[in-house]
Task: structure prediction
Amino acid sequence: MKDTVASLLGEALAKVIAENGADFEPAPIQIERTRDPAHGDLASNVALANGKRLGMAPRALAEALCAALPANGAIARTEIAGPGFINFFLSSDSQGDVLRDVLRLGERFGHNDSGKGHKVQVEFVSANPTGPLHVGHGRGAAVGDSLARILAANGWDVTSEFYYNDAGAQINNLALSVQARCRKLTPEDDGWPEDGYRGDYIVELAEAYLAGEAVQASDKAVTASANADDLDNIRDFAVAWLRREQDLDLKSFGVSFDVFFLESSLYESGEVEAVVQRLIENNATYEKDGALWLRTTDYGDDKDRVMRKQDGGYTYFLPDVAYHLNKWQRGFERVIDEQGADHHSTVTRVRAGLQALKADIPEGWPDYVLHQMVTVMRDGAEVKLSKRAGSYLTLRDLINEVGRDATRYFLVARSPNSQLTFDIDLALSQSNDNPVYYIQYAHARVCSVKRRLGEQGIKVDLDAETVSLDALGEPQEVELLKQLARFPDIVSRAAVTAEPQQVANYLRELAAEFHAYYNAHKVAVDDEDLRTARLALSEGVRQVLANGLDLLGVSAPEAM
RNA sequence: GCGCCCAUAGCUCAGCUGGAUAGAGCAUCGGCCUUCUAAGCCGGCGGUCCGGGGUUCGAAUCCUCGUGGGCGCGCCA
Result:
């Protein structure tokens, strides 16, 4: 509808420009939905934006444009308002068409094919298997998974990926910690590894190992030899065991991955070494102090970075560059890396490394979505997370306490750029102040109405093409239709800007309008035409709520 | 010191990419359940949109300089 009005207005503008003998490239036509119904359904600022260049007062130009506007059945009338806005009042038929679209398209309403099946990868969580997932990982999981769902709804071919390191110093540290525990040591004892891990899970891990357990994770299977001297076996077992724990948490969170990618595979395949050679050949490196440096300052970094250490090992960012080259070579037109903001310095470095490869990778590639810290509140006080003591609130604890839906909603409903306070008491409260129940309740209410009507033998499955919507005329009904019409824009914009919180905010507004409508007007009235029309509207709201909640990975219950 | 993020009602946050009179919830005060789910609705109170400049017909929104808070500045990952 917006597009239709925009093109009509474009025609009118071209005509007026020609009539005035002017010749310039007009400012792009902007059409927006109005906030105030008194301003019509759609409004445009073209007259304000172009008045000066045409030498016309904005209101005069607006009048000329309205006169030059081609006739169209969808537009009932236009008005000129304020400093020169053109307000469009749409015909009731064209508003009802939106509802027909919802009913006809069902769970596909709001989806589009702007991604054209092109490949996009969303990498998120990517936690190294050295401990349980915590709340920060939860934020990454909620945001990343929603992004993947939103991109898929926009017609992209989405791959969700989890990258981790199953070798290296931290994993070795993990293995040594488990080994120490197998030998009955505790973190307080002298023989405990320096900077060893000390959570309760180390105890569980050691017990499972000594019991000779067989572990099956989504991407690994290992059987413990129960031999406390076999560090290699302990390492493999510990990684598989923790990966399995992560799998369980992610599954209960409704999050799944298409690919688990191992950092070690980049060494085994020679891709890391190839990247080093290529950077040297491109004269992007130099030797200093016995180390090999990359000139990242050539690409906006504030200092050059060591890529090969004095001891001959590589720093972490080299496999990162190799990993991203690998992504590029897999044909991902768009890559979104979702990470904690404490890793933000990696952004410049990885992009610099990719540019230095001279592999025709676009400068701003890949995209990053960095989420800020999460603090958890309970009983009005912050829940302190102490990694050193090994005591911290895990994602599993949170899901067990407040449930999957509330946890996901709260973690995805804020801009990732803002710090997030997760209030456990709020997430648990079953009331108005808890948006997730508020939205789900609106959905359940419609289901309840349909159930009741069905019990009375009234037909509740409506035909999108033939159902009569003429009886809809209450201001709240018109507002709800307009609200439904926004959903496709929201889905589209959420994908372009990589902001899943837009879906969450929209759903809250839609639910609020529906609750108000529900309290003011009854669906199950005797007048059949009115009842059917209101049922159709309610069903449309239910469908959009369900579609939106699905994009957030939150369930849409039929009863509460 | 340098870089990134944030700042809107007492509190938690929206504000649809620069539009018309800045909006919700909580808290507080007052109403609505013999009628489709009160996990709901209606109304009252509540604002220096952190501050100063600038761009613009128009700024909470863009630019700039500050202030305050968070995070990061390893040959750790």
